[in-house]
Amino acid sequence: MKGLMMLFLVSSTSRSCLAFQRTFSPSFTRKTTLSATSFIDTITKAFSSTMSDSKTYTVGITGASGLVGTALRDELAKKGTIHGKPIRIVNMRRSNQASSELSEEETSIAWNPKGISPEEILPTAAEFDAVVHLAGENIATGLGPLGFIGLRPWSDAKKAEILNSRVESSKALSTAFTATKKPVVFMAASGVGAYGNTFIGESKPAVDEQADISSTEGFLAEVSRQAEVASQTANKAVRVVNMRFGVVLSTKGGALAKLAPIFWLGGGGNVGSGDQYFSFISARDVARAIVHGMETPSLKGPVNFCAPQPCTNAQFTQALGKALSRPTILPFPGFAVSLLFGEMGEETLLGGVRAIPTKLLKSGFQFSHPTVEDAVKSALDESI
After folding, report:
1. 244 secondary structure, DSSP code
2. pLDDT band at residue 123 under the 50/70/90 scheme
3. Which of 36, 111, 196, 319 is 20 to 30 A off residue 263, Cα-Cα?
4. Residues 6+ apart with CB under 8 A from 47
5. pLDDT tens digits, 35-58
């Protein structure tokens, strides 16, 4: 109770000071706001670390073997501690029967995305300090034996699988936390596709988390909307962060893993007009940003996980060609994209998103790779 009263007094005092400065000081700047936010976050972090008597900071990850999951596990291992506690990573695997307990020695646990009650879905929810939900159907591959090729992959059945894999699992995990009173961070994957795919050329300005996504067009926009709504079932003790990912750049997976060999052979070039915007983030920065999200109590709701300087497809092409010392003179015409990849190609390759990470920047996060040149170099140099 004393801790709660102290936190209330500190927060109230900080808000009063900020109000005074805004009213009477013409030199009130963004730096002051950041300092106050950081101060409140620091106090809240210290308070939060006393709320659990566990010896470790336990992080559960779904989709832990994927591109982002692998990068996150690497970053957590490098970091070592959160809130002064050793980090414990638990791989969360799907099953029709959820594990009934989580011992201190276990590094893997079963959860049931088809369960109805918290006890059926994740009985061990109270054992976690943070759960990062990354699992979901791959959007770039089709169904069937040759689905991995990715030719016109978005059949009606595939789109239903993409949507259900994200919405149902997010709702299940969110429901699992309705029974716990322990402060937990639930970080659920979403995407900058929530803003639509019409950011072509300079005519449409960049958007941040304040943008209205209620009527944005495109299949991925609909997936993001529904998944974010599904994640909000959890009770007020749970801090929900909807991670709107840009394209994660890594040679270990994702778009760059497919493009790098083509560019290396001299087959790279602009896709379509090359004017479509491209919101990206390095694998290292996305992992660092997720950890920052765990540690920063002020971050909640939709948060853009993308670099602060979005580029066009032409700028990305130039950066990758330069990094590999290869020419980029073979364009990929728009009609060929539509013919080979159908709706998926039109939305993800010919469409564009120009998002900026306002919330991350205001919370004090510093990008290691803010430009596309930096991010491409990181992808080629890093082991994640």
Report:
1. E
2. very high
3. 196
4. 3, 6, 7
5. 555 544 554 454 444 445 679 999
- Which candidate, 107, 104, 122, places its Cα nearest to that of 180? 122
CB-facing half-sphere around the CA of 11: CA atoms within 13 A = 12
DSSP sequence for 11-73: HHHHHHHHHHHHHH-TT--HHHHHHHHHHHHHHHHHHHTTS---SSEEEEEETTTSHHHHHHH
Tokens of 73: 């596990």
Please give the Cα distance from 44 to 8 (Å, whole number).
10
CA–CA distance, 150 with 197 (Å, rounded to integer): 20
Q: What is the pLDDT of residues 254-268, one digit of tens each?
A: 999 999 999 999 999
End-to-end CA distance of the chain: 44
Q: What are the two backbone dihedrals, phi and then psi, of residue 131, each rounded to the nearest 5 degrees?
A: -125, 125
- Cα distance between residue 292 and residue 364, in whole Å: 9
Query: Which residue in 187, 279, 283 sits closest to 231, CA to CA?
Result: 187
Report the run of H or E that residue 91 belongs to, with start and end: strand 85-94
Class of domain 53-382: alpha beta
At 217-243, the pLDDT tens digits run: 999 999 999 999 999 887 777 999 999
DSSP letters for 101-156? ---TT-SEEEE-TT-SSHHHH-TTGGG-SEEEE-----SS--SSTTGGG-SS---H
C-alpha distances out from residue 294 to 51, 184, 326, 329, Å: 15, 9, 40, 43
Global confidence as pTM = 0.87
The tokens for 153 are 């992959």
Closest-CA residue to 112 (of 158, 169, 49, 44)? 169
| Residue 50 burial class via C-beta count within 10 angstroms: exposed 0-12, middle 13-18, buried 19 and up | exposed
d(CA 91, CA 76): 13
Digit-coded pLDDT (tens) for 175-192: 999 888 888 999 999 999
